[in-house]
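Quick one - inputs below.
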Amino acid sequence: MYRAGRRRGVDLLRLQPGDQVVDLGCGTGLNFALLQSKVSVGGLIVGIDRSAAMLRQARRRAERRGWKNVVLIQADATTLSPADVGARVAAAGGRELSDSALATYALSLMPEWERAWTNMRNLTKPAGRLCVVDMRRPTGPYALLTPLAVAACRLGGADIDAHPWTAVDRDCLGVEASSTRGGHLQVRAGTAPALRRVPGSEHPAR
Ligand SMILES: C[S@@+](CC[C@H](N)C(=O)[O-])C[C@H]1O[C@@H](n2cnc3c(N)ncnc32)[C@H](O)[C@@H]1O
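Output:
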């Protein structure tokens, strides 16, 4: 059900071999195989999640598959310091700023998802590509499944009415949109103009 959104999201990131990509709220690493197929061994995947248990599973997945190019960082996406995360990625052999960032089914779990969105932008180089994949109430014939979708989101702690992909529409250029499952899965990708960071502050001027 949800893999379709992941696949479309990764496709719309337009990754190239050698790229470095952030997977924000990476969970157990369900995006990693799709991302690996794009960035290949010369690239780097930076998985960020606040849950140590999720990251343990993500680490096991990377080890099982023999992926050496995965850096996992435990951090809260809404409060992390992009400079600190960048330094940790650089210390692990990557670059401070990534080429792209992706969040699949993660921002809707964060009441303060706008902060996570700002951090996604600050973890990415100017004109980097950003993608959000998330859920909303289905429409059309799929509307019959609304109670199921609402219950599944509630069970997983997601707010089905958060609509975090609207930030991509609002803030990015060259936005590409896709949806599936009667609109239940929404995918947006685009290029974010650079944020103007306030000197000495983690947070950019808006
Ligand atoms: C529904 S899972 C999705 C995982 C993965 N992106 C996927 O597509 O399978 C949501 C993930 O977001 C993480 N998460 C929730 N709130 C977070 C926060 N404030 N900072 C970082 N991670 C968070 C959870 O720990 C969980 O792993």
